[in-house]
Structure prediction request, 730 residues.
Amino acid sequence: MRVAIIGTGLVGASLGLSLRRLDEIDEVVGFDSDPVQLAVAVDRGALDSGAGSAAAAVRGADLVILAVPVSVVVDTAANLGPLLAPGTVLTDTTSVKARVVAAMRAAVRPGVHVIGGHPMAGSHETGADHASAELFVGATYLLTPTVDTDAGAYQRLHGLLARLGARPLAVDPARHDALVAVVSHLPQLAATTLMNLATDRAREEHAGLLLLAAGGFRDATRVAASNPDLWVEICAENRDAIVAVLDDYRERVGRLRSVLAVGDEASLRRELADARASRRSLPGKETMTGALVELHLPIPDRPGVLAEVTTTVGAIGVNIEDLGIDHAPEGGRGTLRLAIIGFKPAGRARDALEALGYEVLEQSL
Amino acid sequence: MRVAIIGTGLVGASLGLSLRRLDEIDEVVGFDSDPVQLAVAVDRGALDSGAGSAAAAVRGADLVILAVPVSVVVDTAANLGPLLAPGTVLTDTTSVKARVVAAMRAAVRPGVHVIGGHPMAGSHETGADHASAELFVGATYLLTPTVDTDAGAYQRLHGLLARLGARPLAVDPARHDALVAVVSHLPQLAATTLMNLATDRAREEHAGLLLLAAGGFRDATRVAASNPDLWVEICAENRDAIVAVLDDYRERVGRLRSVLAVGDEASLRRELADARASRRSLPGKETMTGALVELHLPIPDRPGVLAEVTTTVGAIGVNIEDLGIDHAPEGGRGTLRLAIIGFKPAGRARDALEALGYEVLEQSL
Prediction:
């Protein structure tokens, strides 16, 4: 299996480092528009070789990963998409999905398999210098299958990522964008707002104000130091979802303000206690341990089954550790196998799939 | 000099550990309503001895520090205030000041010197177990002198704290509460709101949502795990200031929402860039280095001069590293000496004081 990585910064080079450890990967070729990044990626062993151009890198690749910034991914897809041979899997690593997946799909010939990707792993460092083969271990890796995603292609990509130690989670592209608006884009804009409010107050009222900034303020504003260009792009790409989440947030701030203003201590205590309990039980980046349970589902031969099954399991917050497909000898039907860690999560997945009419057989491994 | 510390948790025991290192401190006695905390503080060397009661601890003390939670500080002051002899300095360590300082002043006899205190240092750990003599090194330590604060008493307390390595900053009690509403109380309530929004969305829409929580979300919600009881008390004590800041914050979130909704990228980029620049230049907890500059001010013998001078310097964000008073032999007037690190901050302090009509002489040490 031959992999091409376009964009060899932190994420691209980390994917190269970890993919090259797998037996099934014969070659990883890469390209970066910045020759320094490309040279560092080769030096660090993230690539077997650097290509002279993106077009040269993708030639003959079975898997093409666009690990470029969101601002250029659409153009990159438009340029490279037509060069890919049928059967190639094309994925990306950007943090918004609906428009990016649509652009990738529009750019490729029939038979090229587009599956959006978004690793929930990163670092405040950037560049191939800081790449690590361990970056994805235990991290949620979002995949966005759609109604016509090929099950075999999905299985190959899912399997590779799982063997890197990542925990794939399937989610619809539009749904993805609504979710990251909550967990990624809102925290950024809330931190920006808090930082600017404090700075303005310091300027207008009391220059000593920022001398009072202790740990809580520092934590709450840490991401405010992020790159403005990147965030302007992200906000443009995911505008509708972010605006909707900001409306929700603003309304909640207003409600809390009213609770305080009237001295409703019971409601205030409940808000604080709920948030504390949720924060304490926030799932971490960790490799799960527990019994591996396999669910077997006979699946009809109709489009969208793979996306429906995987995103249904994702929507109840359950990772699919591995995924396989057995085709019946007579064709037309097959069996999907999903490996899930833990009897409880597997039971919840089975219930959700049975509610959609699937027959599910559970088997512990 | 004899010090009494009431409440020997993290802050009280840390004060004990560091004060006992100073030559001028003859004895540190403490009391805690929790006998385990008191025993740990004695074991750790934070106290010369534990007293059998708070009343016994404060007997004969020159400095009494109420290092108890905000929920009990008013009652503690009411109980102990009448026992203090004229000349005693009474301070506290709670995070709200206007009402607490008023309560301390109402509780004491004439001649007892009340100066509110609030060290901007802490830890997510609590209790005497985690006390450290280094807790205050480089940390801003707010003091709230008022119009009738005795200059000599202020000088003694300021000097002690400076010799612990803390950086005293003077601020009016009501102003203090407005400032901490911005840098401490708003970050807490914003984190609580963000955490609850994400949890509700996870419950209502997509149980996988919290699996997507990466570093930005974790940082932004870290303080949401704080103790609800403590925060209900703080919100009650500082209600008006917090409500006003929440109004400002909500309005800014709304404005940012509009900027996004209309696609005003220039304004969005400016907001992001301003916040980034401010966050990157946030002053840290650090011991400053630079030339020590002394400002000499002849001061008239009228009430409020000490508070006016120190809070004016605090309001432009300049720490007074040390402070002394020379009394003229003929009485009636004296000279206040302020030690400030750096020529620029000293120049700004001089300008601000001259604008109030003080004659200021600058001298580098």
